[in-house]
Amino acid sequence: MVDAAAAVVYMDPAGLKAIGAGLAVGLTGLASGIAERDIGSAAIGAMAENESLFGKGLILTVIPETIVIFGLVVALLIS
Amino acid sequence: MLKPKQMSRAVIVGHKDIMEATVEAIHGSNLFHLEDYNEDGSGLKLGRPFKNAGEVSKKLIQLRSISSFLGVKKESIPKQKETTVINELDSMLDQLDIEVSNKTEKKSELDSRLKELEALKKDISPFSAIPIDMELYHNYESIKVFAGTVKENIGSAVSQVTSTYEMEYDQSTGTVVLFVKKEDEAKISEILSNFEFREIRIPEISGTPSTLIADITREEEGIQKQITSLETDISSIKDKYSEFILASEELLTIEAEKAEAPVKIATSEHTFIIDGWIPDDQFATLERTIESATNGRAFVSKQKITNADTDIIPIEYDNPKITQPFQEIMDLYARPKYKEIDPTSLIFISFPLFYGMILGDIGYALILLALALGIKKMVKSDAVKPLMNVLIYCQISTLIFGVLYGEFLGFPLASLHTDHGIIPGLIAGFETITLFNSPVGGEVITYPIHRTHIVMTMIIATALIGSIHVNCGYVVGFINERRNHGFAAAMFEKGSWLVVELGIILGVLGYANIAPTEIIGIIVFLIGFVMLIKGEGAQGIVELPSLLSNALSYTRLIAVGLSSIYIASTVNLIAFEMILPQGGIVAVIGAIIVFIFGHALNTVLSIIAPGLHALRLQYVEFFGKFYEGGGRKYNPFGYIRKYTEE
After folding, report:
1. Is the peptide bond prior to B636 cis by the omega test (within 30 degrees of 0)?
2. Distances (CA, A) of B470 to A7, B333, B433, B498, B553
3. R_g (Cα) of chain A, nearest Å
4. How many CB pairs below 8 A link A and B?
5. What's the mean pLDDT in B253-282?
6. Could you tell me which InterPro entries the record lists for this protein (chain A) (predicted)?
7. Which of B333, B455, B615 sits opposite A76 (nearest CB)?
8. Structural domain boundaries enclosing A30
9. Which of B93, B234, B484, B593 is 20 to 30 Å from B500 at the Cα level?
10. Do B279 and B316 touch, CB atoms closer than 8 A?
11. What is the ipTM score, two decimals?
């Protein structure tokens, strides 16, 4: 029988860090993608009506970009 | 520099006799932003277009249709004298019209004949292998003709029903023609339907199919030749007249603009009133121009700008030439309002700075600099040029940061001694110099700065840069607010943020036992908080955490930069450490291909990623603190001539 506490000890901390960093970037990337999907399609729609909305559309689209930047920063801090 | 150009509201009043001369003078000066008049029940009516309007627009339409038929492109030509073009205009236009309409008619005739022949050929082609004159398919009293396709030879099946028939079958296309007696028609069609018979229309024409097709092909070739020679004629007409067309189109456009102008102007029975805007320093010029054009009979006056007007004042940038390319970036967002600070000069500093901080690579800077200079030289378009200038400024900044970071296409230039051994640099003998210890993360600041090794320090440094930038935004917001709503409003709306921040700093210093300011900090923070609620209401409380998230958002300056370095060094790793050591000429070629394509991809990303992120920091974090925008573009009534001169 393997003790659960002993099993934890055998996990490589570096590996866990890498998994954590990967999850931080990956999940926040997905989150940004999901958020930007709706904004982006609406922005393109608005631009089709009025080209001068490009600047505003761009800004609104990249606002959720911050989420993945935070993820990246967290990943850098972990590793 | 930090303000849009000063504008004056000018009103020009005169008798209708001199309206045409006045419009002519205003249009010629290209300075006056005409304000459209809306009928408001004051008794003044919109004017009617000048007498020549109909004729001018008719000619313009005629010319434009010819121009689009000939496919005249906008190109640079020697400037034509206006008087010569005007003198020639009518006769040339008639001549051109006759020549072109002849050609168009002929061309469309030939085109339609070509289509007809094509259709006929398609109809005949199933019969091509059947040597029967097409005439012989029609006009029988006692014979029924079947023509169509079947899936296999029906000869044996038909011969079981009747022996008196004539049949031709083309194996390759499955076409069958069958001549039978009228009385056998029903039986035969039953057989045919078993063989999936599909009727084909028989063209009404005489001659054997093969000769007919040969004839058609010959005629088609002839027509093609005629069309080609017509096209040569058309292109020679185009070459001959394109200068005239460009010049006269410009003149007619100018004339049409002038002729239609009265529909924007308020008129009474005998007078007209032109209302609009002009840069303050040009008012005297306008006054003089109109006076000399009308012998002083028109009255030009400067109106006082009221508060209600400030939203509709057209905005003309007033920036030194070096910062002008950044106006394009401002326009992408929105023009400033009249009483706002025009931040063009501010983003002239911060945008390239952030771009350079993110990219910071000598190799990419040189590639993109060459690219931008090349495009600027090749493309003459007015829309592309400012963007290329922005790119050039950004690359200069990238080059400076590249030298600071010591990076070339993802390779470190200097060698670095770490705990895990020596990381070799690209330049042999160039050693990293240790400067001082960073206060955080036990990291060491060196020259060149190895960004990948001092991540913690860089994250904090970028967040600090962010705080400074955001606070600049608050200061600009304070100035705007003070100008528009007075000191108190500015203090509550924008100053409160600075007080809150001061409170937080003092509190943190006290908490960290650096200075005994914990209590003072909390008090200052609360004062700032109350000011904020007074200034911005509940919204202020909601936005309070944005202080932190905005500053943290600037960590993208290092985060995006690191991702760019990692892509570049991964490309280098694959090319030089995974493929090249395989040995042989194939490995060398493979490594070169991977190196070129990898870095080409990263070069493209190097425009998009740092560009968008640097832009976003301006638009969201910086502009969000003070910028309103939404000013109207100053669009003077006039025309910039390209092809003609007076």
Report:
1. no
2. 49, 18, 33, 10, 11
3. 20
4. 50
5. 90
6. ATPase_proteolipid_c-like_dom (IPR002379), ATPase_proteolipid_csu (IPR000245), F/V-ATP_Csub_sf (IPR035921)
7. B455
8. 12-78
9. B484
10. yes
11. 0.78
